[in-house]
Amino acid sequence: MRLVTFSHQGQRRLGARSGDAVIDLNAADASIPSTMREFLAGGEASLASAKAAVETGEQGIPASDVTIRAPIDNPEKI
What we know:
By secondary structure, the protein is of the alpha+beta class. It has helices at residues 25-28, 36-41, 43-56; strands at 2-8, 11-18, 21-24, 60-62, 67-69. It is 31% helix and 32% strand. A five-stranded antiparallel sheet has the order 4-3-2-1-5. A hairpin with a 2-residue loop joins strand 2 and strand 3 (21-24). The longest helix is centred in the middle third of the chain and has 14 residues, at 43-56.
């Protein structure tokens, strides 16, 4: 599973790349954090929820319709 932060229809979202589509993790499961920073802080629970969302394959958006963004905005440390 390859996690991505992307923009679609003016909204910044958290997703997972699956073939030629990006699974909108926030739309697939409301319990998944909406930012990569929060997702990483959620640890194994976030990862398990994301894996389950990807397995269903729902909420897939063609990769050509999204813009991939930097994973984390305004990092605290570089």
